[in-house]
Amino acid sequence: MRTIVLPIVLTAAFFAACSDKVAEPDPYDPAHDYFTFANVDQFATEKIALDLTVDFDSEQLIGSATLTLQRLDASETQVILDTRDLNVSAAHVVLADETLLPVEFRFGESDAIKGTPLLLELPGTAQSATSFVLRIEYTTSPGSTALQWLPPNLTAGGKHPLMFSQSQAIHARSWVPLQDTPSVRVTYEATIRTPPELLAVMSANNDPLTPRGGEYYFEMPQPIPSYLMAIAVGNIFFAPLGEDTGVYAEPELLDASVFEFADTQEMLEQAEEIFGPYEWGRYDLLVLPPSFPYGGMENPRLSFITPSLLAGDRSLVSVVAHELAHSWSGNLVTNATWRDQWLNEGTTSYLEARLMEVIYGKDRVDEERVLSYRELMLDLETVPLDMQALAPRLETGDPDDFQGTMHYSKGDLLFTYLENAFGRAAFDRFLKMYFDEFSFETINSERFLDYLDQHLLQAEGSTVGRAQIEQWLYQAGVPDDAPVPQSSTLNAAAAMAKAWAEGEIGVAEIPIASWSPQATRHFVNSLPKELASDRLAELDEGLGFSGTRNAEIGRTWFIQVAERRYTPAYEQLEQFLNRYGRGRLIYPVYVALAQNGNDLELAREIFDKARSAYHPVTDVRIARSLDAANSQSD
Ligand SMILES: [Zn+2]
Q: Which of these, 337, 169, 152, lies nearest to 235 by C-alpha position?
């Protein structure tokens, strides 16, 4: 393909020279958010007040959003907000005496990824006011990409419906008309009406003692980006984990959740020691039904968590450490656009490892890092080179697709590299200073680089300079001097896989009971490519992989089952794909099926049966990948 590009470039240069015209400057601006329609340079939202009724029958939120906006541009009279599939019935400017001035509004042209801009023409005095209040009456649509409406049979209890939101990356616009970009921070308050027997919770000041009654009031006094607005309604109850921490879940999952997440209070206290004060008041968890699309979502004060972490042995709680760490990196200091997402996720992955080290020890962290590193190396084989930079050029596509291990593991590696170069004490000083300097602000990669350069690279002095960091930010792959995680316990598990495959030991001699789940996963990953079906059967019968209740071991095993076409385990593979809706667990299994050369049709059949229980975010992602596999095989 490169050979075709070259003549075109020459031709363009030739014409430019002939006509004496200067070539157009590259219009790409890394500081610009390409995933919002909102005119954020003209207006900035300061506060949002929601008044919403949660209607399970029509699967809609019905009510209004009242936005307090600051004018940044004296001459602009049109406000543009982001929406997706919202039905707007009226818009008004609300004057100080509560008088309503009607606002003319219309929808602009829709975009498959970005949704539909809502254009509002300011009336009368609002055209010049430095600050004004805009109220929009609207309903969401049942197809809202943020909201999942679960019928009772898809909940743990089976008696009550449940709904929840997932606003990241650009789905808040499908339940609130707003400036949907991380570069704008707002405070919010909300009145939420629900069926009286259900409880509403939000990423706000949830009071564990709130009586049920069908009307709930929330306040989020700290300014947050739109992707952190969150709501859930269901037959949810609270149990304390510590003084400032607790867990919400359906009663059927509450005891297991209290056991699994018992270390949350200690995590919070340790996190404050290392990273500085926790700025958000309480820290609670909400354990959702299996269709929750992610491991966790760092909604402030109330992380939303997948029940797939309930392994019964606290082996998967690194996700909680991760979501808690987001209280600093992400929620307090926020990526300016989705292109800078590594600043949220890479920093958080590093903080997560630090927390895990304090509470569970360095061996555990080494194990997790080796597993993540392996996933990163696999991703580097498939992710396009221009998307392997931590801070790539990103102006099209879906930010949801832009969430591989790249930001997480490569970002964590960069921070580990910096810790190694400058020492933990100096690096911790820098981190605390960074969180303090940019708290409740947004930051892009370039500003981070300048700050790092000034306050760590130059201030502390080392062989690591700006050029090395630029390589991490803007180049594909990982630099040659990047740290390579090592784990002695995982090395031992890998050696055991080899010894068993070569017939040196029998299944009964594999000491799996003494291993961590991480070591078990590494054992499965280390099995040689060529293994006869009867040998896989021997392993599965002896070690019970297909029947595991540890979601991560299941993920690792069923990827292998699909890649190797080990058909005796296909029935349990299908059960696995029905048990969970978390993208990380099921997506790679679907991809492995679709790409093994034989089972694309089967993957489609399983997906068609299972998809009604998946969240829209997961559904779209799997549908896209199966379509892509389809067109490859055509
Ligand atoms: Zn994260």
A: 152
Place of tokens 């890998």: 494
What digits encode the pLDDT tens for the residues 334-376? 999 999 999 999 999 999 999 999 999 999 999 999 999 999 9
Question: What's the rounded Cα separation, in Å, for the pair 60 and 63?
Answer: 10
Q: Distance between CA 287 and CA 249 in Å, rounded?
A: 5
Q: Is 46 designated active site?
A: no
Q: Which of 59, 323, 367, 552 is catalytic?
A: 323
- How far apart, in whole angstroms, are the C-alpha atoms of residue 220 and residue 228? 11
∠ CA 624-627-631, rounded to 5°: 140
CA dist 41 and 43 (Å) reads 6
Question: What does the alpha-carbon distance between residue 52 and residue 54 come to, in Å, rounded to a whole number?
Answer: 6
Q: Are 582 and 292 in contact (CB under 8 A)?
A: yes
Question: H or E element: which one contains 402?
Answer: none
Beta pairing partners, 193: 53, 215
CA of 255 to the centre of ligand 1 (A): 26
65 alpha carbon – ligand 1 mean position (Å) = 28
Distance 298 CA to ligand 1 centre (A): 7
> CA 472, CA 406: separation in Å to the nearest integer?
11
The residue count for the chain? 634
- The torsion region of residue 70 among left (phi > 0), alpha (psi -120 to 50) and beta comes to beta
Establish whether 323 is a catalytic residue.
yes
Residue 133 CA to ligand 1 center (angstroms) comes to 33
The two structure tokens encoding residue 24? 């157009």
Crossing angle of helices 583-594/600-610, nearest 10°?
A: 150
Per-residue H/E/C for 143-195: CCCCEEEECHHHCCCCCCCEEEECCCCCCHHHCCCECCCCCCEEEEEEEEECC
Q: From the candidates 248, 408, 590, 614, give the one annotated as an active-site residue.
A: 408
Residue 96, φ and ψ in degrees, nearest 5: -60, -35
Distance 329 CA to ligand 1 centre (A): 9
Task: Give 166 Cα–ligand 1 centroid separation in angstroms.
Answer: 13
> What b/e readout covers 74-85, taking b as 16+ CB neighbours within 10 angstroms?
eeeeebbbbbbb
Q: What is the pLDDT of residue 8?
A: 32
Residues 80 and 86: beta-carbon distance below 8 Å = no
Residue 554 Rama label (left phi>0; alpha psi -120 to 50; beta):
alpha
Q: How far apart are CA 460 and CA 428, in angstroms?
A: 12
State both tokens at 180. Answer: 């949907």
pTM greater than 0.70 (yes/no): yes
Question: CA 458 → CA 421, 464, 467, distances in Å?
Answer: 13, 9, 12
Residues 6+ apart with CB under 8 A from 568: 533, 536, 537, 540
Average pLDDT over residues 448-476: 96
The residues near 522 (Cβ < 8 Å, ≥ 6 apart) are 367, 370, 371, 487, 490, 493, 494
If you measure from the C-alpha of residue 412 to the centroid of ligand 1, how many angstroms do you get, rounded to a whole number? 12
pLDDT tens digits, 74-103: 999 999 999 999 999 999 999 999 999 999
- Cα 124 to ligand 1 centre (Å): 44
